[in-house]
Write a structure and sequence with these properties.
Structural class: mainly beta
Oligomer: single chain
Radius of gyration: 24 Å
Number of domains: 2
Shape: globular
Largest sheet: 18 strands, antiparallel
Number of strands: 27
Distance between the termini: 47 Å
């Protein structure tokens, strides 16, 4: 009897096009998933007998409602898991149109980029996005085609986290890739079919009606950045043949690591962060009805974003932010490489409130730990009305 090898097991997924739980079409839109581990499986609730018997024992038990759930653990890569990330925020990625015909001057001090007319905000830019410029001349030409993180924004003035060389001649600005964010209306409700194909057995488990309930992002230093999705679905089907035979392998992408990129907290770039995690939850649940073992839907709840980070204690600034209950922003970019125009995934939480403030000396140095909760930001001060913004530079 063959035994399935762990390395030979394959996962593939596709967004469902019909009603939730209808197996997605087998076509080239389906993708193989380069995963680290997964625990997606069928489960059934147990209905135990409550009879009181003279033998003091239970004589029967029945299966109850069917459901599918589990975690999918991945390595964070630009462009590979954008569909699932968009589903976690309940809005598809969209492009910000390129801005042309500008007259922009650059300054080494904030505000760093000033346009002579028009509005950055009306053109679709927002705090937390990464932008690249064109047209600068002479010494300021080093500003061209570089990643700049917007930390403050008005109609004509932009402040960024990176170093800027003063000069003139800027003629255009682009937001690399595509952007999504938690919307205040028009939320999407996407579901997926995921097949677990075991070629050694052979056996196919076709999980259907899966929605992204949670998303976790972890960026440790000197290690790979991690991406974890918690999924909740309706049902699972079994077959001896593979279903997603047309699934394609995603394009090769660099494995992103925690020490390449940037972190901006409260508008200031920090180089003392020792760990960072961000957790998104949609607070979903599967319902139960009379006459069917399947839930009619996977129901969305309120979206929430929490997280934590630890920093070497170099000043008391963050502790004071915590103690005084001050609200700040957090922007993290995880990059493909160290270059100034590297590909990246960028995350912005425009309004967070710190909790915690504990200290540790486990590594010969003083470390502070903070938990945080992200809150809905008003659409003021160049911010979008959202709790979380994502930008993936690799998306066309």
């Amino acid at each position: 009897m063959p035994i399935q090898s762990a390395s030979g097991l394959q996962l593939a997924y596709r967004r469902e096009t019909g009603s939730i739980g209808t197996l997605a079409p087998n076509d080239a839109t389906a993708k193989l998933i380069p995963y680290v581990s997964h625990s997606i499986a069928l489960s059934k609730s147990a209905i135990a007998s409550q009879e009181i018997r003279p033998d003091f024992q239970m004589a029967t038990m029945r299966h109850g409602n069917r459901a599918v759930g589990g975690e999918l653990q991945l390595q964070l890569q630009a462009g590979t898991y954008n569909e699932l990330m968009a589903s976690a925020l309940r809005r598809d990625f969209t492009a910000v149109p390129a801005i042309t015909g500008l007259t922009v001057t650059a300054s080494a001090t904030a505000p760093h980029f000033t346009r002579s007319a028009g509005s950055w905000i009306s053109d679709g830019l927002a705090v937390g996005m990464c932008v690249r410029f064109t047209g600068f001349t002479a010494g300021a030409a080093v500003n061209n085609a570089r990643n700049f993180t917007i930390t403050a924004l008005t109609a004509t003035q932009m402040t960024v986290a990176e170093t800027v060389v003063a000069g003139s001649g800027g003629t255009g600005a682009t937001v690399p890739g595509r952007v999504t964010f938690m919307p205040t209306s028009g939320h999407t409700q996407t579901s997926y079919s995921i097949e677990e194909w075991k070629p050694d057995v052979p056996r196919s488990h076709r999980h259907v009606g899966l929605r992204v309930n949670t998303m976790g992002i972890s960026a440790p230093p000197n290690d790979r950045a991690q991406l974890t999705f918690g999924l909740l679905g309706r049902d699972s089907q079994v077959s001896a043949s593979r279903y997603f035979t047309s699934a394609v392998t995603p394009a090769a992408a660099p494995m992103q690591v925690g020490h390449q990129g940037s972190l901006v907290v409260g508008g200031q770039a920090l180089g003392t962060v020792t760990a960072l995690t961000i957790n998104v939850t949609n607070n979903m649940e599967a319902g139960a009805v009379v006459g069917s073992a399947l839930t009619p839907d996977i129901f969305h709840g309120s979206m929430a974003v929490t997280g934590s980070f630890t920093v070497y204690e170099d000043t008391g600034t963050l502790y004071d932010v915590f103690d005084q209950e001050t609200e700040i922003g957090l922007i993290v970019r995880v990059a493909d490489d160290p270059s100034a125009a590297s590909g990246f995934v960028q995350i912005c939480l425009p309004r967070i409130k710190l909790a915690g403030g504990s200290f540790s000396t486990a590594n010969q140095s003083r470390v502070q730990s903070f938990d945080f909760t992200a809150l809905l930001s008003p659409a003021t001060g160049g911010n979008l009305a959202t709790t979380m913004l994502l930008q993936d530079s690799s998306l066309p």
